[in-house]
Request: fold
Amino acid sequence: MLDIRILPVGEYQSNCFLLTDSTHHSAVLIDPGDQAEKIVRWVDTIKVQGILITHGHHDHVGALEDVRRVFGASVYIHPADAEIFNLEADFTIHDGERINLCSEYIEFVHIPGHTPGSVGFKLIESEIFKRAIVGDAIFLGGPGHTASPEAFATSITSLSETVFTWPDEVILYPGHGDPTTVGLERDAFEAFCSKPIPPDMCGDVTWS
Reply:
């Protein structure tokens, strides 16, 4: 089983994640948003084999170049956000692809809306899926911020086609704040979608 460690960093307290294998000898770092020196001290002597980015906003990549130099690890980003935010990726992330960490798998899931290249990471452990890191695609009580009505519509559609097809017990670790579960969000999401949505809706939205 992968160990999930969380370090909130920067002005917006963005969640930086460290996924370590059962030996704690190797890890994947996710969203180094700020405070590079703090992240490096936190990781300590664990070998970082890859740096994954959920999306390209500065509060999730602000320390990327500094930690990339320190750890010498390959960076994975969805090509849409790599282009839009001018970020250098060693590998591009595509929906359904997996990388290996020890004997477990991290599967990439494209969840556009918050940004065109927003992705989540499904943790496939002993072939069982119970946890996911979802960036700013969804939070406790609502979707991530969207910049336009078109982006908001994309967000709702992509959530319905990804996150809300997952089992209720799946734990969702967002890019800010506390975890939630698919089950805790499902009823409110479905109630929200059952009502007329104003054509200009976007920005910070809650299910209620």
Remarks:
- Residues 89 and 186 are 34 Å apart (CA to CA).
- The chain is about 25% helix and 30% strand.
